[in-house]
Write a structure and sequence with these properties.
elongated; 314 residues; alpha+beta; 11 strands; two-stranded antiparallel sheet; 2 domains; seven-stranded antiparallel sheet; Pnp Oxidase, Chain A
Amino acid sequence: MAVLRGGRRIGNFDIRLGLPRDKSLVDIAKDPRLQRQPGGSGVLQRFQAEINQGEGMARPNRFLVIINPPARSKLSNAELLASEFGGGSAGTNNDLESLNTANNIGLLCNKVTMPSRDVNTQSHITYGPKREMPYAYSFSGEVECTFYGDKFLRQRMFFENWQKKIFSNETHNMNYYDNYVGSMDILQLGQFDAKADDDARVTYAVRLFEVYPQTIGSLDYTYGANNAIVELPITLNFRYWKNLTIDQVNGATIGQAVGDLPTIKASSDYGLFGGILSKLPPELKRAGRDILQTTRRNLPIGRVTGGRLFPPFG
């Protein structure tokens, strides 16, 4: 809003002049505030730059689990086809060992624990302060998972069918180790700025080797849980784990530490008269531009030439 404003109508033109309160947007392309480089040397600026390079923080709710049971690697080609296309020649439990079921189990995993790893040390003293010398590494060898269960509890039956390969309910004999171990992948998901996509790309991944279901947890039923969803607790045992992305992430392209300078768009070009208008004070520039636009619309020559007041200069 202007401090002073006045106007007068001359013919078909409504001429208004005003003295604006704020001139901060006058000659904005040369504004020194827009010439400063983004970022800074302060602690907060350096912290923000490091976050920008990582393109944001990892979120604990953006993950995916892929379970690879041993059954698919043990099936023959004919049994594998029967399992995929619903045939009956591969046994009665093929649907629980199919790829579709394995994908269903991974997608319905709503909680998983990323495995840890410790370096075991032992005190060693020659003279002076003691040293903690590493002699081995270890980890718990267990991963806790929770899965949503559908009305058939197929997710629970998937792990029960897996445990049937470990022991026999009839003879109580234990099977060979290599016949029932599989693998499991835990993927951290994120968005890459260069890809401009959603949070569906793998940014970190570990693989657990020699996996088998050790514990199928119990379920509690109650009449008071009207809107609750059954969650199946499963404990998986594994021998060791490996980072699948350490080499790729080490050479990945990181994001920019600071943003780019803002782009100042050029004003509209009004030809010869536009050059004259650009030399006027801001109070007269707006009025002159309005007169020029009104003249283009109203004069007959403007209608004939398609809005160009003077074709050589418009």
